[in-house]
Amino acid sequence: MVLDYIRESINARGYPPTLREIGARMGIRSTNGVNDHLRALERKGYLTREDMKSRALRPTGLQLPLPGTDADSSAPANDDDLVEVQILGRVAAGLPLLAEEHVIDTVRIDRGLLKGGREVFGLRVHGDSMIEAGILNGDYIFVRRQLTAQKGDIVVALIGDEATVKYYFPEKDHVRFVPANKTMAPIYVRAMDFKATMLLGVVIGLYRKI
Question: Sign of torsion, CA 8 40 98 26?
Fold first, then answer.
């Protein structure tokens, strides 16, 4: 049923469905549950997923050439060289970092591109606060989970109930989170109110769909 739906989507729209679309079609509420089905199909040789493509599910035997490549020129990457990164739509206070209800997609990335391996999660960017750093609305950023950062690092911090992406500047009396957008003001957190758990990690990479 999963394979039929993927083929149907490719034939009708030209690209495969997302994890959420598959879950809605199959009545599976958890994206992890969808991934279990996809991994089983991969193990049995019925399905492949291309590196760095969240929508690149391909039933074996169905040729979908990637832009700039020949249909039969790319060999699937060795699974040992790939790491699966969960992409979050948002991060909320009081919930586990990778709470299932916030996982919107999964991408498989070459391990050599992401230092930090399984300590890396993805986050979809909302808003224009970092546009001057080349981080645009809708981009996927890759974040290495850690509770410390260096001055000037781009970090993901949990301020209130929402995650924010900003430059990090710890100072004597406060921590300054600075946007890369000259129309926006920094966020200040008093040093006495700042907790290490507010830092979710440091941004180490970016992926943009085009």
Answer: positive
Which residue numbers are catalytic? 129, 166
Q: Which of 150, 175, 74, 84 is nearest to 122 (CA)?
A: 84
Give CA separation, 197 vs 87, 94, 146, in Å: 20, 11, 9
Cβ-contact 118, 108 below 8 angstroms: no
Report residue 49 as tokens.
């997923």
| 146-185 per-position pLDDT tens digit | 889 999 999 999 887 778 899 999 998 999 999 999 999 9
Q: Considering the chain, what is the average pLDDT of its residues?
A: 77
Q: State the Cα–Cα distance between residues 135 and 133, nearest whole angstrom.
A: 6
pTM: 0.60
Tokens for 63? 């040729």
Enumerate domains of the chain plus CATH numbers. Answer: 2-63 (1.10.10.10), 85-207 (2.10.109.10)
